[in-house]
Amino acid sequence: MIRWILAGILRDKTRSLFPFLVVMLGVALVVYSVGFMEGVFMGMIDTTANLDTGHLRFVNKPFYDEEHLNPMDRALAAQKETGKWLRENSDPKVQWSPRIRWGAIIDVPDEKGETRSQTPMIGMALDLLSSDSTEIERLQLKNAIVQGELPKGPKEILLGDQLAETLDVKPGQTVTLIGQTFDGGLATDNYKVVGLVRFGVSAMDKKMGLIDLANAQDTFYMEDTVTDWLGFFPSHVPYTDYRKVSSELQSRLAGFREAPPQGWAKDDFPIVLSILDQRNMENMESMFKLVKKIIVGVFILLMILVLWNASLLNGIHRYGELGLLLALGQTHKKIVWMLGLEAFFIGLLGSLSGCLIGGAVVYYMQEVGINMGDAFVQTGMMVNDVMRGRVTLEGFLLGIGPGLVASIFGSLIASVAIFNRSEANLFRELEAG
Question: Is 223 in the same domain as 97?
Fold first, then answer.
């Protein structure tokens, strides 16, 4: 029977071509939509993690509660001891990096040494000078440089290209950072601008600078002290695992607080957060899941309605054939089963074709992407200017499932009409035709 059904599908295009095209197009759109949303969401997560929060974040709660003020006096001391504990007690896949968040006024002098322009800015201090540092690769700074070069020595700074344009600063010029020290005093230090970078996030390009961690500790009087420890997962780890690892590390942290390093203050209370607990990412995750369900549900419903009507029209043209089968002794149930099996094969072929087309488009989006920087320039969202797709197994499964369900369900609904037709009427229609 299966070989007979497949032969009928391939030879009689009038009953298979339109359902095949409907399923193929619907599945391709589902695969593309899910892949594009996955890419945008994971791009948002990775960009936010690399530039701001990490996939995991170990931070002093007093600092976290007031981080918009950059309270350097609430940073966490005992950097070496804390880092050792994190590496020994967290998941081996997590790579920990110390960072310092700082805020300052950047002052640009003129030829006479007087202030020519200045503006508030935010900054991140990270390991830029060590030979084994992973931060340069993580932030893709070599590719992000638009002018100048990476820091190679002490007291050198990278500026976002839009910030440099606002201040009219070019590589080689010296600027002054005016901020707050760890003990609450005034920190001032001169830095040489060695490079301008485009982070790919408009919100960062307009106000961010990067300096080496050791230089920041010297400028802000923070020896063996950092504001954050950021943990990073490999790209293959799904974001759904972040909270699990965060919870496990949080449970072990209670013992560390009971016997803290000597450098910690009495009221220090470090906590562990996943990226989904910060920057409103939890709501973004919920919205992402909801939109994905809506898209898949809408395509299933539309495909069912279209295929239902196609099956009804197809059934009308095949009443004679069905009457002949009934006259030869086939039962109604067996014919419905045959039509369902036929719809299954059409749905399977259409789904596989749709996956190939949709997957190819998503792969192109993943490798090339679309530059949408102008659309996000005023939003302040930490989204990469280049929107990329993401090829995932879930995307293909969400495409194949609706394709098969819609095809079979549409055919079965239409085939109910067979039970309302008698063998005699169907056979007479065959003779009339």
Answer: yes
